[in-house]
Design goal:
Bound molecules: protoporphyrin IX containing FE
Strand content: 5-15%
Strand order of the largest sheet: 1-2
Helix content: 25-40%
Number of strands: 4
Radius of gyration: 24 Å
Shape: extended
Length: about 230
């Protein structure tokens, strides 16, 4: 079965001098929590890392505390449950791979922390998968539990179409179309894979400015030093 290559989309945050859009990251985190988190973990991200990115400290303390976290062993050697805190990773939907496969007809929903990096065409591919579901071509039978999606290798994916128009309600009033939710959640997942991107660009700019000044000073110094020999 032929697989379509995703088109290349103009992601605003990829520019050399552009940064993440925090409103989009906040919306994307909402889509992740309300839709994707039923089946996918982003186990590399901890609540504290989202402070000042998607939410305030207070909001995240509250959000974390709503989760029961298994901790221990305590002094008696027992495991116990406690409310989540900022240093906890985002909760995973399943306890282990077996449980994840059992809930998904044998397919495993992969952890999404680094998914943008794991697939060729990263964000464009993720956006295409999320928005690319369609009816199979006439005459093509789909096996039960598989859905036609021409962007997925083999065109049959075990993930049911996760997004629906107005499937979430955004606090900032942005209309929650499928493509808007896909755009936001992909930006969020890109942040998960590259939380340091903004700092890296800022450092690069500082470096280039300092390098420029150094070049001018060096050039001037050289002319000054050699002036007597000319
Ligand atoms: C696979 C993203 C929601 C079940 C995937 C993949 C991505 C992804 C990127 C990997 C595709 C690949 O391997 O190249 C998302 C996002 C979601 C979401 C961003 C929310 C918007 C869900 C939900 C379920 C689910 C709600 C369960 C009902 C699966 C399964 C696979 C998968 C079973 C493995 C598919 C296969 O190997 O055929 N998802 N997903 N996903 N997802 Fe999701």
């Amino acid at each position: 079965e032929e697989t379509l290559h995703s088109p290349s989309y103009p992601w605003d945050h990829l520019g050399l001098l552009s940064s993440y859009d925090c409103a989009a990251l906040r919306r994307g985190f909402q889509v992740y929590r309300q839709v994707c988190a039923t089946c996918h973990s982003v186990e590399r991200i901890h609540y504290r890392e989202l402070v000042g990115v998607t939410h305030t400290t207070e909001e995240l303390i509250e959000m974390a505390s709503e989760v029961d976290v298994l901790d221990g062993p305590n002094d008696e050697g027992e495991m116990f449950e406690r409310p989540g805190k900022l240093t906890d990773p985002l909760p995973s939907p399943y306890q282990n791979e077996e449980q994840g496969r059992m809930a998904n007809g044998g397919a495993l929903p992969p952890d999404l922390s680094l998914m943008v990096k794991a697939r060729h065409a990263g964000q464009d591919y993720l956006f295409s998968i999320l928005t690319g579901y369609m009816d199979p071509p006439a005459g093509k039978e789909m096996m039960p539990g598989l859905y036609y999606n021409p962007y997925f290798p083999g065109s049959a994916i075990a993930m049911p179409p996760p997004l629906q128009d107005d499937g979430v309600e955004y606090e900032d009033g942005t209309p929650a179309t499928i493509s808007q939710q896909a755009r936001d959640v992909v930006q969020f997942l890109n942040w998960c894979a590259e939380p340091e991107a903004d700092g890296r660009k800022k450092d690069a700019l500082t470096y280039m400015v300092v390098l420029g000044i150094t070049a001018v000073v060096t050039g001037y110094y050289k002319r000054f030093r050699w002036a007597t020999l000319k």
